[in-house]
Amino acid sequence: MEHRSTRLTRLVPALVAAFALLAAALAAGAAASPSKTSSTHKSFLLGVVSISTTDYGNHETIVGIKAAAKKLGWTVDVIDANGSADTANSAIETLVSRHAGAIFDLVFPTTSLTAGLKAAKAAKIPVATWGGGLGTGVVVTDGSGGVFATPIVKYMVSQMGGKGSILALTYHVGLVCRNREEVFDTVLKAYPSIKVTKDEIQIPGYQTQGPQFATGWLAGHAKGSQPLAIWGCWEDPTIAALSALRQQGRTDVNTYGENGGPTAMSDILHGTLTATEWEDQYQEGIDLVQQTVAAMKAGASWKPKQIEVPGVLVTKANIHTFLKQHPGLFPGLK
After folding, report:
1. Collapsing DSSP states into helix, strand and coil, what is residue 144?
2. Cα 241 to the chain's mean position, in Å?
3. Residues 6+ apart with CB under 8 A from 305
4. Which end of the chain is more exposed for a tag (fewer CB within 10 A), N or C?
């Protein structure tokens, strides 16, 4: 696979051309509204409201957004809502008052952002979401589909032989996790011999809740009694739960997550995480910028869309090949 710098270089001409057309359109309307268009053209503010900037997936998306935005001369302001939808709504309203040119929502479902999205729509500010789905004033969403979870869940049940018990760590605040859980439930319907226990984790809090839930669940599932697995709607809670397995010397529990961050890859290399599904969130960040530019250029003719970047299932069997195919992605791992 190409280096990030190579991929971005290939995208830059299209982005710049699209932005040039947008700038020309804005300039053409200057006579009707000189102060507004002049302000937008001179300093385009892209506001990014993230559910958690410390999360690897959010961080990678933001890096991709910033890389693409920099080539367009946009200013990017990232606001960490720290898991609070109320904070996210307030942040969007603040960005509206600051005359942002566009606003990106990372992970919060649009149904939780009614006030903020209403304010953005009233100000005619386009909104894009990563993992938030479509909604009021949203021109594009990426990474929101639960279909991304299908390969990892199917791999998990195949490794279990279609029987046993699973601890599922869920998160209903985020649409991404809700959609992935729906896929999880759909797949598991075909395996009545697998018993599922669900525990809801929080942001912040999953670092301590993961081990706590795992400890309680392990107490009722003796070592070697049956095929056992822990699944997280994203990998961080599962990785946190690994400490409980280590403390109890439990090597009989397979562990699964999604997103494919550096810690997950390291754990797979060392045999403590069974599998994850890597998501190219850097590319998704670039896509959000590119699609937002296209939406602004198209104006009223634009139709909101949902786009997805396919994931890659990574296991002990293929991780070395994966790392060779993505040189520089995870420095120090080989």
Report:
1. coil
2. 21
3. 139, 140, 141, 291
4. C
Hey, what are 232's tokens? 């997280």
Q: Can you give the pTM of this predicted structure?
A: 0.78
| β 75-80/45-50 pair status | parallel
pLDDT of the residue at 174? 85
Identify the burial level of 228 via C-beta atoms within 10 angstroms of its C-beta, where 0-12 means exposed, 13-18 middle and 19 or more buried.
Answer: buried
Residue 304's pLDDT is: 96
The C-alpha atoms of residue 27 and residue 19 are separated, in whole angstroms, by 12
d(CA 126, CA 57) in angstroms, rounded, equals: 23
**What span, in angstroms and rounded, lies between the C-alpha atoms of 278 and 254?**
18
Judge whether 26 and 296 are in contact, CB under 8 Å.
Answer: no
Q: From residue 37, give the alpha-carbon distance in Å to each of 69, 73, 296.
A: 19, 16, 13
- Is residue 277 a contact partner of residue 311, using CB atoms and an 8 Å limit? yes
CA angle 323, 143, 197 (to 5 degrees): 85
**Domains of the chain, start order:** 4-143+280-303 (3.40.50.2300), 147-278+315-325 (3.40.50.2300)
DSSP classification of residue 259: B
What pLDDT is recorded for position 21? Answer: 44
**What tokens were used for 159?**
């490794």
